[in-house]
Amino acid sequence: MRNEIMRCFAVVFTVIMIVSGCSGREETKTAGGGGEEDTKPTYEFRLAETHAPDYPTTLADKHFAELVHERSDGRIKIDVFPSAALGEEAAAIEQVQLGAIDFVRTSAGPLAEFNKDYAVFSLPYLFDSDEHVWNFLLSEHGDQLLDSLESSKMLGLAYYSSGARSFYSSKPLAGLEDLQGQKIRIQQNAVNIDLMDALGASATPMAFGEVYSGLQTGVIDAAENNYPSYYSTGHYEVAPYFLLDGHQRIPEVLVISMTAWEKLSEEDQELIRTAAKDSIAFQREKWAEYEQLAEEEIRDAGVTVTEVADVSAWQKAVQPVLEKHGADYQDLLDAVEALRP
């Protein structure tokens, strides 16, 4: 009988802790003018991150959280959960949309399933360079895309760097012809599926955390990503052929749930938005450092790295993708073209 009572107490205590720990809000009092006291709320939010604790985006998440904590005098605390502790990107986005998670750092790729305009970033060979990407992201067009997530009960706060995506495989991979018939893991959206079809490969949507075992067991032959992701996940151990074609430059996006956003005063909203923008330079610096380290490490590990000197054959192969999907994003494509360095 005593054990049953203790078990019941433990269950009740756990429920209370969960309820009080989810996006908690308390009223704190600060001295106001003339001896009056102004009541300001405190918050504890959760931020979902799929990458490891030392990855550039995770470090930027933490830097953003520190800025918010400092500038709010400790009233607003954001706990960062790395390594997909709160779920892989697609699942975390859904939870942010529902208000169950407050923030997520995600690739723009999966966001296309929630807002079709984000699929523009998946169009192949859209940007020429990192400079070109940032010319667009920091423009009014980039800001409009962040705001457009509001229709999906989310709000974009800032973009982070993610470099250029290229192909890597467990099979020899030295040119376009080697992709034929390979099962390639993709971030699921319509553009990516059509892109793989155009290249003669088989698109295989899969959660990022499952890619290593997928490559190891042969469920997939290949994947595509940037240097840091390829290195940090150990994918180079099971897919030692890396083909640098730079077919996509898909940014990362820091997103807040509208449920959390609408709890905040205008002052706190501006504080959080500004902190997110101010974290960009930190992330870009950490990204550049880690990208260089990752390239050096995988080359030292004996990975066969092949650089595509001329992408014209690749651009020709994917032309049907641009013709099929480009019309949906003509205004954005015009902006991208106008911002070419």
UniProtKB/TrEMBL annotation:
Signal peptide: none annotated. GO terms for cellular component: outer membrane-bounded periplasmic space. CDD domains: PBP2_TRAP_SBP_like_3 (cd13671). GO terms for biological process: transmembrane transport. Keywords: Receptor, Signal. One of its GO terms (molecular function) is carbohydrate binding. Pfam families: DctP (PF03480). This is Tripartite ATP-independent transporter solute receptor, DctP family. It comes from Evansella caseinilytica.
